[in-house]
């Protein structure tokens, strides 16, 4: 068998495109898309494997993940379920306006079997000027980085009213106990 000659390869590719015309360009574009998709899939699978390994290293007591972003003394990725009352108090304090906690609060809990997480949703109503409401929500998310705003409904009496009534659903995420005691 003869060696691969770049000139022969270029001639064969050129001949293929001349003979088959637009169909050849379509085939080439399709092959390029498939190659890009395979490269993206390989990168995604590699990233998923790394994240899964980090998660499993965090869930085993007494192990430290060397690739962890957490500095020693910094809070873990998610607070433990046993600390839920402390974090609930922090959330209520952060969602208060002028040092006063919100008046009415409803709590609901949901245990996610797959990743080992428990979520707690606080449903509260806040009446305040829009500027204060935005600052309160920003402060709450800054103080509790594992929490998120799951729902936000706004209403006011008149169009020129400065006071807004907000129905806020604030969700806190906890790491479930290894035995599944999060209910």
Overview of this protein structure:
- Mean pLDDT is 78; it is low at 63-71.
- The chain has helices at 6-20, 22-59, 84-94, 130-143, and strands at 105-112, 117-129, 147-155, 163-175.
- It has two domains: 6-59; 81-175, 2-Layer Sandwich (Alpha-Beta Plaits).
- The protein has 183 residues and is of the alpha+beta class.
- Strand 1 and strand 2 (117-129) form a beta hairpin.
In brief:
The chain is α+β, with helices and mostly antiparallel strands. The protein has 4 helices and 4 strands.
Give keywords:
Alpha-Beta Plaits, 43% helix, 183 residues, 4-stranded antiparallel sheet, elongated
Calculate the terminal CA-CA distance, rounded to whole Å. Answer: 71 Å
Alpha plus pi helix count: 4
Give the rounded overall mean pLDDT. 78
| Beta strands, count | 4
Second rung of CATH, namely the architecture of the largest domain? 2-Layer Sandwich
Strand content: 15-25%
Radius of gyration: 28 Å
């Amino acid at each position: 068998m003869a060696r691969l000659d770049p000139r022969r390869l270029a001639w064969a590719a050129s001949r293929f495109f001349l003979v088959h015309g637009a169909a050849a360009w379509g085939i080439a574009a399709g092959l390029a898309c498939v190659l890009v998709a395979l490269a993206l899939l390989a990168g995604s699978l590699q990233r998923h494997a790394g994240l899964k390994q980090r998660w499993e290293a965090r869930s085993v007591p007494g192990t430290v993940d060397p690739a962890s972003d957490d500095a020693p003394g910094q809070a873990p990725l998610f607070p433990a379920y046993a600390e839920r009352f402390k974090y609930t108090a922090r959330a209520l304090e952060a969602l208060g306006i002028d040092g006063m906690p919100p008046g009415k609060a409803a709590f609901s809990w949901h245990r996610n079997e797959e990743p080992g997480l428990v979520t707690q949703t606080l449903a509260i109503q806040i009446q305040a000027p829009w500027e204060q409401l935005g600052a309160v929500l920003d402060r709450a998310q800054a103080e509790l980085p594992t929490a998120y705003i799951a729902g936000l409904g706004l209403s006011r009496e008149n169009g020129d009213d400065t006071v807004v009534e907000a129905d806020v659903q604030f969700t806190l995420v906890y790491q479930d106990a290894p035995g599944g005691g999060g209910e």
